[in-house]
Amino acid sequence: MEIILREDIIGLGYKNEIVNVKSGYGRNYLIPTGKGIIASPSAKKQLAENLKQQAAKIAAKKAEAEKRAAQLEGVELVISAKVSATGVTYGSVNTATVAEELAKKGIEIDRKIITMRDIKKVGTFEAVIHFFKDVEFKLPVTVVAENQPEPKAEEVETVEEAPVAAEEAAATEEAPAAE
């Protein structure tokens, strides 16, 4: 069954788009709730005329969406979560958590336009933010353990110096053997 969508439905399509759905989904949910109408020939003609008239508005919305996506360039979220000894988080990191972290950075994003799987372990993941029909942004999300101490700068320096010292010792051992 062909339906013309009256609003964006993530996972199905965007406003003013013609989509194929199962008849029960169209008859029992989309049409009664006003989220879609049957795509009859007359409705398709009316849609084409409306899109022609609204082309400038759609272009402006797309430009605004691209501008918002450009704001996120170079942004990477680091979320600290309580983690068990096996590396599994207590609870999960989801779209609401990502939206809160972005708000802390001064970027207001509705959690409903973010899609991702719930994160239940430490690591680097990806959240997709759908700004407009063709404008998406893939945001890297890193989950770190909240209760794990981070290595100090002094420890990092000693770890880097150790291989250098080992190489110097190996070089001095090789030199007497050559004599």
Question: What's the oligomerization state?
Answer: single chain
**Mean pLDDT metric:** 81
What's the arrangement of strands in the largest beta sheet? 4-9-8-6
Number of strands: 9
Beta content comes to: 25-35%
**Residue runs with pLDDT of under 50 for 5 or more positions:** 150-175
Integer-rounded radius of gyration: 27 Å
Main beta-sheet strand count, sense and barrel state: 4 strands, mixed
Q: Structural class, from secondary structure content? A: alpha+beta
The name CATH uses for the topology of the largest domain is Ribosomal Protein L9, domain 2
CATH superfamily (homologous) name of the largest domain: Ribosomal protein L9, C-terminal domain
Cα(first) to Cα(last) distance is 88 Å
CATH C-level class of the largest domain is Alpha Beta
Question: What's the overall geometry?
Answer: elongated
Pattern of helices and strands: EEHEHHEEHEEEEH
Protein name: Large ribosomal subunit protein bL9
Family: Belongs to the bacterial ribosomal protein bL9 family.
Function: Binds to the 23S rRNA.
Domain Ribosomal protein L9: 13-40
